[in-house]
Amino acid sequence: MSLLEGRTAIVTGAGRGLGRAHALMLAKHGANVIVNDLGSSASGEGADQTPAQEVVSEIEKMGGKAAINTSDVSDWSAAKQMVEQAIDTFGDLHILVNNAGILRDRMMVNMSEDEWDVVTKVHMKGTFAPMHHAANFWRAQEKAGKKADRSVINTTSHSALFANIGQTNYAAAKAGIATMTIVAARELTRYGVRLNAIAPRAQTRMTEGLRELTEEQERRRAPEWIATLVAYLASEQSAPISGRVFEAWGFGYSVIESWQHGPQMEASMDPTEIDAGVKKIVAEARKNAGIDRGQELDP
Ligand SMILES: NC(=O)c1ccc[n+]([C@@H]2O[C@H](COP(=O)([O-])OP(=O)(O)OC[C@H]3O[C@@H](n4cnc5c(N)ncnc54)[C@H](O)[C@@H]3O)[C@@H](O)[C@H]2O)c1
């Protein structure tokens, strides 16, 4: 039996890049897939059904089952309809891959209100809304005695985990997604739902031209390396893994270890007395992990 036989998935932003690879990988391993994509530009403008339609056709050509959804994932009622569409079309829902995303990079001092609003909306609300509606369905299923392994895979970023300059909007949203994943994992265990997040690195239109790549680096940045981990996390085989954030690309998979308690001192009620103590614990603490450290992993 295939890894995902009999399971139904929603993949958001599945018309291009990583989402397309996730949808194809899930379908290849037996899942029915709702292929969601608004078809917007990399900065979130416009709409086009073609990318989602092409992925549906690709899946059908390889003998899989897929249906198109072209709604905006950050639209609350459209996200509810997307969950209902999966259930109406394929009879159930087991997997939700929140992947849709856009970029509007700008140094913080120059960032406009719109650049802040639209990026945080597409990523944070665009992850929360489908997750919320799917979780409501799963809670009802569990209460009706229908047990199943249910899996959500959210998409965070190194930008959030290692603080990329020029991306306060995107990094804040992606950090929100990472933490929201862990909180929801704690809340939803009782309904048979596992939630994990991935911080991918791949060559897509989002990262095109950012830096020159050798042939080997380009090969290791194919989205399929990441889709493999997504398909695994979507499968029952990965139970009971939940509440984890994974780095993923062609150079390997790793588990991110989250915020930790660091050096400590006694509290005071007098701000003139704590200078030496605060400087001491800051000096003793490990530095924040930086994006440069992440890049050293790129051989
Ligand atoms: N490529 C990387 O290296 C990288 C690194 C870190 C995180 N990510 C994240 O991975 C995800 C996929 O990125 P990608 O590189 O494949 O980009 P991409 O631009 O190739 O694909 C994103 C897709 O999302 C769709 N989309 C955008 N807004 C939408 C909305 N509101 N509703 C529905 N669909 C929408 C777009 O139409 C597009 O097809 C994003 O969340 C991105 O932030 C990518």
CATH topology: Rossmann fold
Q: CATH superfamily assignment?
A: NAD(P)-binding Rossmann-like Domain
Average pLDDT level: 95
User: What is the domain tally?
Assistant: 1
SS-based class: alpha/beta
Uncertain spans? 294-299
User: Considering DSSP H and I runs of 4 or more, what fraction of the residues is helical?
Assistant: 40-55%
Which second-level CATH architecture applies?
A: 3-Layer(aba) Sandwich
Please report the distance between the alpha carbons of the first and last residues: 37 Å
* Individual helix count: 10
The ligands found in this model are: nicotinamide-adenine-dinucleotide
**Radius of gyration, taken over Cα atoms and rounded to an integer in Å:** 20 Å
Order of helices and strands: EHEHEHEHEHHEHHEEHH
Q: What portion of residues belong to β-strands? A: 5-15%
Shape: globular
Number of strands: 8
Family: Belongs to the short-chain dehydrogenases/reductases (SDR) family.
GO molecular function: oxidoreductase activity
Organism: Croceicoccus mobilis
Protein name: Short-chain dehydrogenase/reductase
Structure, explained:
The protein has 299 residues and is α/β, with parallel strands linked by helices. It has helices spanning 17-28, 50-61, 76-90, 113-143, 158-161, 168-188, 215-220, 224-234, 275-284, 291-295; strands at residues 8-11, 32-36, 66-69, 95-97, 150-155, 193-200, 244-249, 252-255. Strands 3-2-1-4-5-6-7-8 form an eight-stranded mixed beta sheet, sandwiched between helices. The chain is globular, with a radius of gyration of 20 Å. The site of nicotinamide-adenine-dinucleotide has 33 residues, from helix 1 and helix 4. One of its GO terms (molecular function) is oxidoreductase activity. This is Short-chain dehydrogenase/reductase. Belongs to the short-chain dehydrogenases/reductases (SDR) family.
